[in-house]
Batch of 3 targets.
Target 1
Amino acid sequence: MSTHVTESMIRAADRALAQHPEFGDSSAISTLVTERYKFGLDLFAPALPGVARALPILETWEESTTNALFADPLIQFSIERAFESLANGEPATSPHELERWLGVATASFARGGRLGLVQDQMNRPWPVAKGKTYLWDLPAANPVTSELERNFREHFMTGRDVQVEFVAPDERTAGAVDRACSLFGELLPETADSVFRHVSAMALAVMRAGGGRLLTGSAGDGVPGTVILSSEEIDNPWDTAAHLLHEGLHEKFADITRFASLIRDNVPVGFPWRADEEGFTLARALSAFHVYVHFVLYESAVRCYGARLTGRYGSLDAHPVSAHAMSVVRTGSGPYARGAERCRYLGKQLSTTWAAHLTSAGQRFVHWLLECIEPIGVTESPPVRLTGEAPPIVRVSRAVGYRKNPHLKERPLENEGLLFAFAPEMPRVQLLTLNSWIISELCDGSTMEAIGERYFDIVGARLTPAEAQQQLALGLQQLERGRVIEKVP
């Protein structure tokens, strides 16, 4: 870390990481995730009667109730399974688990004003992080608990010998987690607020893998939005806050990639600090880099102004912790033993050797992270901005006409200037930018020449006729490839 890092530099990086309109702004990202789920219910309703019955009920609910529904891990899991089936060309069929849990939620809310899902099944509410999230305290056996535990077992560190025993919180453990949440918020307020928008719940557990202790975990889309903390490692708030940062950022990354395509080829890659293990891919490297960049900032904050917080949170070594790369208390020895070293390695690889396997959005993602952290002095200076291959010169016959796909389904997000679109021939929900949306709206069967004239009326104030023509041609090509539009004689 640079010896000249100041608090103002750290605060600036904290804001930059949390406010980027495409990859950082969790309010915007969460809105897109929620709107994608709403669009998904519209798509699934024709084949799933239980979803069709729930839709008119959901339309009467207040936004806060709908948001709570879509934050539930069982609802999220069921919707993602339905999306996965759709993308594989095998639309979900009834009976489907999504129908089941929507039925539970709507019937429960009608009876008592509660959704009857995971949070409502708690023995006792244990709110933490100023009520932004809560700790699991599930009854020993009921349908919700059974389904949640099944999903967790099937998706948590598959292929490894792992034992997990969930632990009910009490006043001491809930207080320890809440204290770590508070410390996180004081050190990196923008990042903490962002992370907690993607973490709907936490759980305490004793976790073992191959005889070793696990410090944190998540089950990905098996139990979305849920962070698992080791109940044996939560007394030290400095490292527990780092654990929350770590797993919470994985949840944020999962939400980003629900609609942002960052990887062109998910090729195998090497992690030198785990040279004896296999199965590491570019997607995993990108997710890890996202975490390590934020951890470097967290560690910088601890070293720069953490001392003034020790009166409230104790000294860094007040409680023992296990050595690991994302500890601000105790790290191992050797190359790549520290998070900063891993951050430097991944940043270099992703911006050079591995960059060709990223989409242009993925390259922007990496450059943004490097740019944010560069003043801290851990990574090398950002390389020349990566934009992928130069757009090809596209030539389209001016006599060719275009129209929208007559089978296209759409969900506009007018305030964001975005459009969700679904074409049965390309069974994956697409997110169109404002420019692509405008071009699609101009495709009413008119010729390329007529469309071009109207398009230039819209963009002519900022583009030359040649630039507008090329941008339109490229947009038409991309929309046609995604089956959003089609040629007409």
Target 2
Amino acid sequence: MRPIDLARRHGLSTQAVRNYEDAGVLPLAARTASGYRVYSERHALALAAFVALVPGHGHAHATAIMVAATTGRVDDALDLVDRGHAGLVAARAIVDSVETTLRDITVQPWTGPPVPIGPLAHQLGLRPATLRRWEADGLLGPRRDRQGHRLYAAEDVRDAHLVGQLRRAGHLIADIRLLLDELRDTSDPAQVTRALADRRRALNARSRAMLAGSAALDRYLDAPAPAR
């Protein structure tokens, strides 16, 4: 088939198809005596797989998967797919941890006066040095009294509980910082709950997209190789 025939299947330009071939997303096309590209059904399956992989894995990751697949490095392609699923699992675990922690904090909210570092560390089963390290990492922001001693207000106590839960679950400081920023943007717990529900729906949509991408990739891998 001609480049225009392949492009029209996915609403692409012929230049986009040529660019994908040059990038290795598609196998090299055969050429006519005049030098024009000729694509086969195998190329159509490769392009369909790439288009299906992008929503779940992103453009760069989908490109890497298809480059590996079209150059015969099937193990590498499948490893990249698995890494994408592993990232999705990690993202779900963060949402689960935040939801669990928010439930725990809602059951026992802190409404007392600001807490010094020693009592808060004892409450969390941590050393004061750990709280100071979290402050240096930008996770906590206690105020100071006149003597320069740290005092943790209600929102600081909440954040400390949340950080402790997420760290015990093995989450990275960078991921925790992003979540705390999101929580600090709203004082409405219901809004935080809605935001987490939205994130879970987005993860579910990405998971479905990954399934569709994997199915399309499998069809490409099952296609007979061109005769040599």
Target 3
Amino acid sequence: MPKASPETSIAGTTSKTTRKAAGSNNKPAKVSAAKLPPLDNHSKKIFVLDTSVILYDHSAVKNFQEHDVAIPITVLEELDNFKKGNDIKNFEAREFIRFIDKLSSEHKLQDWIPLNGRNKGSFKVLMNNTISGVDAINIFGDKNDHHILNSALKLQQDKPGNKVVLVTKDINLRLKARSLNIISEDYETGKIQDVADLYTGCDTLEDVAAGAVNELYEHGFCDAEKVLPAPPTDNHFFVLKSFKNSVLAFYNIAEKRLERVDKQTAYGIKPRNAEQAFALHALTNPHIKLISVQGVAGTGKTLLALASALEQRREYKQIYLARPVVPLSNKDIGYLPGDIKSKLNPYMEPLWDNLKYIQNQYPETSKEYQRLREMVELEKLMITPLAYIRGRSLSNIFFIVDEAQNLTPHEVKTIISRAGENTKIIFTGDIYQIDTPYLDSQSNGLSYLIDRARNHPLYAHITLQKGERSELANLANELL
């Protein structure tokens, strides 16, 4: 039997709410392990969803196959605090509230309501969390989290023959649940099973026939069947090595052949290794419209994306650079002084740093230097937040999304769905450097995109392995 998310869908995700304690004078009670009744293996499971799951995926209640799903009334109370705003979590809250409203127009939410769809279970709102025996509020204090735990405990008492499972993105809540003998799981819809096997976009082939390597050097292409035993992933890159020579190659899915990859220069930026050459080749390929570049800090992800955008500036109306605003130390953007531009500048400084680095490749009196300044002044090159992307149509845009590992799968889908004619979208990031609570290397939007979009003719991916920022930066990545 599958875990909390047997079905997989492109689903919206976001972080969990921070709950406020109501304060309690109750002294901690002694914890005694609650004895669970024997389970009927032939009965349905009942999954109790936490607020974090709804904010992660408003359609989560539909992703448990034939099993029943319930939410405590406390979850609805918390969702009410998130219905206003432009963030993805606000959208998720509103969509789920609409779903509940539609259900309640025909049924009582206190009753088990059949969910529409083949082999679907039923849904209800848990109104009562008054229990006998072990009480989470007496043990842990009067908080919304603990009301949710009591709802699960009450359901265990009312349904002794069913397996009750609390599903939450909050690790600490899962641990508290298990301490009360409540089975608890993470919500796993959309999660990548093994990031160690995540698609890298390139391979090295040893002992390639010298004739094929020579043909690539002389003619720029060769028949893929001469080198590869089977057709590779669309837009895949190779380092081909023969006895004496090696060559960089790209599998052109349209022509079904291997083509030589040269180390080209983009607006003064030249690749320093094979992976960077592959990335720049994909970024400047007019037939590839969606690209992801993954790598640790200092590998040149954002710099290469920006340099390639500037190199192709004549092909697009505007260049957009964006990154998710992830406040540190729980300080929201509203705490910063000034207008929206002033508030955003601290978060966007890394993008400005890359722009200045490219600009400094040229003398201040040069045309290239002045052109960059004019592009910023005329808003041909714009650095913008992602908060207001929903509802827009982006046509004739070169769109770079930095730090994409801090996006949810639903946010990535939303951005891509905004693409109009002649728009190219690039996602860059490091799936192991995540600043957003309740996302990890398996559930973030960048990993999801790499896993799902591979082998599509419009998509290319490359993982940058070697840091090129400095030896000092490499020391941090390798040793610390």
